[in-house]
């Protein structure tokens, strides 16, 4: 059963033993040889497919082009055979590989760019699929097989999600990737079969190097939003490398009097209860996460589904002339982070960046209500955002925090936990309409929960424009045999764009 670890700040005089530090306890979970359950293996396969899908759709977006060019500027390091970059062949005459930390960087940006892969929300927010690029890159570089890769990914998900359950970062304006640096380091350690001492040092350094402010997700959101988790993955790879060479890290990183909890989180009197699997307990956390049907912030998923339902039932809702106001009563997070409670004028600006618009629930609800759906490219197009009738409707939409929806957002009961809310629409003629939704249709408790077929369909839809059909089939056949894959087959666990899709010569130039 799960063991809850009480984590508090200790003074230097207390000399907290290493074995009692959270970084060490995380390392112990990583070293536990317990087998990964079949249902967890199946979900890991689903999420690798999901990551490949959203990466395929991003291959020619500016952040990916830049990150890929940076990665290609660095040769394969001498300690292994290198790692593949999404979109490029890893074997054959035209093979393009790089050092694992740079593959983690390029592929992490590709996965994160569209904000379209899996999510887990509790005390903190997370996209645990961000663990896959760095762990896969190290697996390919070191010659790990599919079984080892499964162990690494299951561990990465487990550690990040357990930290997310217990430790809130955003309240202190710390970006959520501060939980990803430690989890990716732990996952890499499990993949490689490292000892607890080495993993604990990498976990501590993974945290120390990935704490940053949430300004990356505030106001006019920049392209760094896609780079932040990729940076955490890259730092995790480098932290493991240093730890394997015997280099140590700040200690205790969580509990020290000048550590993360004391100075970046709840302060010197703070304490957290972190749940981790007991020895011999399978790592099942991935089963509690959920992916996205729509390319938008996760709190927008249910609202898009409600909007398209309302559009089917009441087509007149698309016309702003008949609408007096629309209020989305929702959770604290949705209101203050992607709603009008953020007080970000950019969330109502037709000229705002894509990264800003996918964090604006008033914009998203307006477009979904008019279009009866959502598209990962078309719904963000400048012409779509600036359409006069959309702008008029958009500016009539506000959010409000509802204590009950906030309570359900934080509920530990999976049957009660909710990410939606209640919409109240006031019409110009004085009538009104009220409806609500708790979870997205694709959520495990939603109207149409995602299963393997949905993941494959999402992959085919997003990869179809850039991958040949033979490449799509090759990847799907390979990934669905994940635990049986040889080291050579793991090195093929990527996607290769069809000829002419990627123009490497057109990439922007930089320092490297």
TrEMBL record:
SUPFAM superfamilies: 2-methylcitrate dehydratase PrpD (SSF103378). PANTHER family: 2-METHYLCITRATE DEHYDRATASE, 2-METHYLCITRATE DEHYDRATASE-RELATED. InterPro entries: MmgE/PrpD_sf (IPR036148), MmgE/PrpD_sf_1 (IPR042183), MmgE/PrpD_sf_2 (IPR042188), MmgE_PrpD (IPR005656), MmgE_PrpD_C (IPR045337), MmgE_PrpD_N (IPR045336). It comes from Leucobacter muris. This is MmgE/PrpD family protein. It comes from the Bacteria. Residues 20-271 form the MmgE/PrpD N-terminal domain. It holds the Pfam family MmgE_PrpD_C. Residues 294-482 form the MmgE/PrpD C-terminal domain. The lineage of its organism: Bacteria, Bacillati, Actinomycetota, Actinomycetes, Micrococcales. Belongs to the PrpD family. Signal peptide: none annotated.
